[in-house]
Amino acid sequence: MLENLRAKDIMIRKVLTINPNDSLAKALITMTRKNIGALPVVDNDMLVGIITHRDVMLFALENLDMKVKDIMTKNVVCVEEDTSLKEIVKIMAEKGYQRLPVVRNRKLVGLVTQSSIIHVLNSILNR
């Protein structure tokens, strides 16, 4: 059963995003209020980066007026909807990532997080 799971089966579909021209202050407020650790950066429906709470905290003391695009990770490792759970876990373990954007033609369609994997595993194991 686990070997059949794909990103589309475990991804979060309603993903909060931010624009590259938004301020770090907005990113920080959004992540804090929503209790999330990262925001995919989307411009014209296309994934262009990702910014984490840690990224913001490293630069926030310097200048909250900086733009998201100034500190976001631009070369984001992504997966597609049909990427297997095995491959997702391998990428997360090897790279130390806590989340992976799910894309279709560079458009963000979801987000796989460590928490989303745990929730799916919990559902399967406790049936």
Strand content: 15-25%
Helix content: 25-40%
Integer-rounded radius of gyration: 15 Å
Could you say what the CATH architecture is? Roll
Ranges where pLDDT stays below 50 over 5 or more residues in a row are: none
CA(first)-CA(last) distance: 12 Å
Number of helices: 6
CATH topology: CBS-domain
What's the CATH H-level superfamily name?
Answer: CBS-domain
Task: Supply the CATH class.
Answer: Alpha Beta
Q: Kindly give the count of domains.
A: 1
Beta strands, count: 5
Instruction: Estimate the global geometry from the Cα principal axes.
Output: elongated
Mean pLDDT: 93
Main sheet, how many strands, which sense, barrel?
3 strands, mixed
Task: List the secondary-structure elements in sequence, H or E.
Answer: HHEEHHEHEEH
Structural class: alpha+beta
Enumerate the strands of the largest sheet in spatial order, edge to edge or round the barrel: 3-4-5
